Amino acid sequence: MREKTCTICKEPFTYKNKSKQYCSNACKQQALRNRQKVKLKQSIYAMEGLNGTHNVKLINRMFNTCIRQTESMCKGMSIHYSIIIFMKKMIQSLKLNAPVDSKLKKQLDRMKGIMTTLYKYSKNNQCEYGYVCFDQRTSNNTLNALNQIKRLRKKSDSNN
Ligand SMILES: [Zn+2]
Fold this sequence. Notes:
Blueprint: E1 2-5, E2 12-15, H1 25-73, E3 79-80, H2 81-97, H3 103-125, E4 131-132, H4 136-159
Antiparallel strand pairs: 1-2, 3-4
Helix pairs in contact: 1-2, 1-4, 2-3, 3-4
Bound molecules: zinc ion (ZN).
């Protein structure tokens, strides 16, 4: 009979069979539970990672759509006030779902600023049917701000 230390309870135990790792059935069960816990944790991490990247891809795609839509709104297109509200809310929820402290979140925050300005403008300048067309100054300011965001987005693309 030889002696070795149980990997679970750290108590010394005697063994006949060299492959025996645990002092008792209880410790053997505990070891099995530990392994299952690790597996579960690993799969949870893997899932979170996957969802994380899917989220970012989706946010980026919707963000780009919002930028393009806002650009066309600044090119003399008359739009309904409700579209602005919709886009403002969309940017807000994209921002909420963007990874904490990310460049993407900061870019969305800038976009939110643009949407707030356009929202205020359309609140005061819509026709009786709720349609609005931005004046030259608002359009130019917005397009400039959008170009800045697009530059930031290109830069963070090449950094990744
Ligand atoms: Zn043990």
